[in-house]
Amino acid sequence: MARKTISKKLRFDVFKRDSYTCQYCGNTPPIVLQVDHIHPVSKGGENNIDNLITSCQPCNIGKGVGLLNDIPKSLKNRAKEIAENELQIQQYNKILSSRADRIEKEAWVVIERLEGCEVGGYDTKRILSIKRFIGLLPINEILEAADITASKFTYIGAKQWKYFCAVCWNKIKGVDPSDKFNGAA
């Protein structure tokens, strides 16, 4: 395979990543540092940052075109760290997805409490508002706001929707919904 030149930027990105330290022996400047291929170009290795490592000149020459039988400890640690980060990201995404599912289900429970609407037949803006309330209040508080609204009105139009939202915002602000001066009436 033809050897491609490693750009200066990539070379210094490798040096920075490896803290300007030979990953084989731990030497640091003033010794001359080089960028070495973990998987040699002659055996199909490429110039991507994951295949490059900081090496001092004596270690790089000593390694030659052979494959690494022993992966330097710093690479093992970095690989372990990357794997752990990936696992954390996967777990975090799983939690976010589970939370989104819960919020979606709770939003439809609120909608049904408000007006008995079937799933799929409701204004997107109202659903987003309800989801926002779910992020700010416990579900039982929002259901109570729906019950207060439903007991006052026989259907949910624009005026009634504003009333429901006012009750929710007053709950968020800590205003007692039974207070007739709270702005929800």
What would your notes on this structure say?
This protein is mainly alpha-helical and 185 residues long. It folds into 2 domains: 8-70, DNA Binding (I), subunit A (Orthogonal Bundle), CATH 1.10.30.50; 94-173, no CATH class. It is 56% helix and 5% strand. The chain has 6 helices and 2 strands. The protein has helices spanning 8-17, 57-63, 73-115, 124-136, 139-152, 158-173, and strands at residues 33-37, 52-56. Helix 5 (139-152) runs antiparallel to helix 6 (158-173). The longest helix is centred in the middle third of the chain and has 43 residues, at 73-115.
How would the blueprint of this fold be written?
Layout: H1 8-17, E1 33-37, E2 52-56, H2 57-63, H3 73-115, H4 124-136, H5 139-152, H6 158-173
Antiparallel strand pairs: 1-2
Quick synopsis:
This protein has helices spanning 8-17, 57-63, 73-115, 124-136, 139-152, 158-173; strands spanning 33-37, 52-56. The chain has a two-stranded antiparallel ribbon with strand order 1-2. By secondary structure, it is mainly α.
Helix % is: 55-70%
Query: Largest sheet, order of strands side by side?
Result: 1-2
Shape: rod-shaped
Global mean pLDDT: 83
Count of individual helical segments: 6
